[in-house]
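Figure 3 (text version): structure tokens given as input.
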């Protein structure tokens, strides 16, 4: 199975890439990056994207035949709301439109829908009229891109695989280890269907 991955240089994206490379079901991975990744693996293809609002023909050709995309691009918190809107909303929507035209036919020919797995956050608020008491604009921007059909992960605090203070952090709020989150996202990409939104409490179940 061929999978597209965006955000593979980030904390979560790196773990997703590592697990994708180890997964025998995944035969090909196309990583969308602004710069080359110093990693060599026969399953991995680097597709350089200078602007995530536009996809050149060479990148589109690399993505052809993919059946799923795991989108980890973005940050847990961006203070600049214009930049946040561009990264979390505009980049994601542009990718969704490109993938619909480039990859949907292949997935449909195999009797499955193209699966777009999107990494959001537990605090993202889809109701744009609801009053919020912290990070108001950013939480609304991060939730806007949840409006098209996809499988959306909304984890709480994402912890490193080995964290000595894990029990203490868990007492402060919802959390999940990065390896468990990455594995759950990959499983959804492979299986498709299921819940449209996967909350922190459902990750790993």
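Below: residues designed for each position.
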């Amino acid at each position: 199975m061929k999978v597209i991955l965006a955000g593979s240089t980030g904390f979560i994206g790196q773990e997703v890439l590592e697990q994708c490379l180890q997964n025998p079901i995944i035969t090909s991975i196309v990583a969308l990056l602004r710069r080359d990744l110093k990693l060599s693996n026969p399953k991995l293809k680097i597709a350089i994207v200078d602007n995530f609002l536009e996809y050149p023909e060479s990148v589109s050709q690399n993505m052809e035949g993919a059946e799923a995309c795991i989108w980890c691009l973005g940050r847990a918190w961006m203070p600049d709301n214009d930049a946040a809107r561009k990264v979390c909303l505009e980049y994601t929507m542009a990718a969704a439109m490109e993938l619909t035209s480039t990859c949907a036919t292949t997935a449909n020919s195999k009797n499955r829908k193209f699966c777009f797995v999107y990494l959001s956050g537990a605090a993202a608020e889809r109701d744009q009229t609801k009053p919020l008491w912290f990070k108001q604009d950013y939480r609304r921007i991060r939730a806007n891109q949840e409006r098209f059909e996809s499988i959306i992960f909304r984890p709480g605090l994402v912890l490193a695989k080995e964290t000595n203070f894990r029990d203490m952090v868990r007492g402060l709020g919802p959390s999940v280890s990065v390896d468990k989150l990455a594995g759950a996202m990959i499983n959804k990409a492979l299986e498709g269907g299921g819940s449209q939104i996967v909350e922190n409490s459902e990750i790993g179940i």
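The first helix runs from residue 11 to 22.
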